[in-house]
Design a protein that fits this description.
Blueprint: E1 2-13, E2 16-25, E3 31-42, H1 44-59, E4 66-71, H2 74-80, H3 89-102, E5 108-113, H4 120-132
Parallel strand pairs: 1-4, 4-5
Antiparallel strand pairs: 1-2, 2-3
Helix pairs in contact: 1-3
């Protein structure tokens, strides 16, 4: 089974109060799981990485053959694909955590850049994380 994950991180201010949202969908586009949460103060890029990390934690509780992550963060996608260097020290920590999580996964991993309009569900959840102040729990 292929899972399509939609991830988003939001920050009000840069840095500022931040939240993450993740939506998992099956091959037919049916939502199978979603999470959101408040992560405190973070930059927008750090929030995007925290959303990806939360996504990988969530997917670890499911069974799939292939995970396709959809993100509207061009920086995140290009860094994970190795097209951009990771220069920021804080982002490098998140980047390393992502690759540590991916090291022994039993599925094929792919990450793709999408437009903001295609990521409305995860964006809504990331903003709900900020507004609710509910701690992120996976």
């Amino acid at each position: 089974m292929t899972i399509h994950a939609f991830t988003d991180g939001a920050s009000r201010g840069n840095p500022g109060e931040a939240g993450v949202g993740v939506v998992l969908k099956d091959e037919n586009g049916k939502t199978i799981s979603s999470i959101f949460g408040y992560i405190g103060s973070a930059t927008n890029n750090a929030a995007e990485y925290r959303a990806l990390i939360a996504c990988l934690d969530l997917v670890a509780k499911t069974k799939c053959d292939r995970l396709v992550v959809h993100s509207d963060s061009e920086l995140l996608v290009r860094q994970v694909k190795g097209e951009y260097k990771v220069k920021d020290a804080e982002i490098r920590k998140h980047f390393q955590k992502v690759f540590a999580q991916l090291e022994n996964v039993p599925y094929e991993f792919e990450i793709v850049h999408i437009g903001r309009e295609e990521n409305a569900g995860a964006d809504r959840l990331a903003n709900l994380g900020i507004e609710s102040k509910r701690a992120l729990r996976v």
